[in-house]
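Tutorial, part two.
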Amino acid sequence: MLDKPKYKFLIQQYKNKIYTYSIYMLRNKIDAEEVTQEVMIKIWKNIDQVNALAAKTWIMKTTNNLCIDYLRKRAINNKREVDLSEDFEGSFSNKSNSDDPSSIVHNKMVYEKIKEEIIRLPENLKSVFVMYEIQGLKYKEISISLKMPINSVKVYLLRARKNLQKELKKYEAD
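Running the prediction step on this input gives:
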């Protein structure tokens, strides 16, 4: 029998994470919505087999696999617009407590530049970076989701950070 409260709980917990990850990977709102919907359907179909303790890893692995499928099916257009990620925007805006209008404008410009640079990361680095920094997954969860050794996760995360640091150096506060 299907466990409706368990399904409802999982959807409430992970729908935003699924969508945010998908938008960063696919760079397209419609595709991200479709992936999110497909993941929710897969959760529904497999609700009896999903271990509540391992659900996060399984859901992110499923999301990643569907995103890869979408990327393979279509040619990637690097100039597509990406809607603001609530998770990333929220965490970025919370770090600046200034009411100074020039600081607010500067922070918005830096935020947009950071978002652009994350999108430009190679897919392998971007997936690890988004899962760790934006989604808040642990190394082990990322390792299981992406089927790669924990050391590779750490290396990819380091490379993504260095790449972003290099690209964003000119926006460093004076």
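The domain at 86-171 is CATH 1.10.10.10 (Arc Repressor Mutant, subunit A). In part three we will examine how such features are distributed along the chain.
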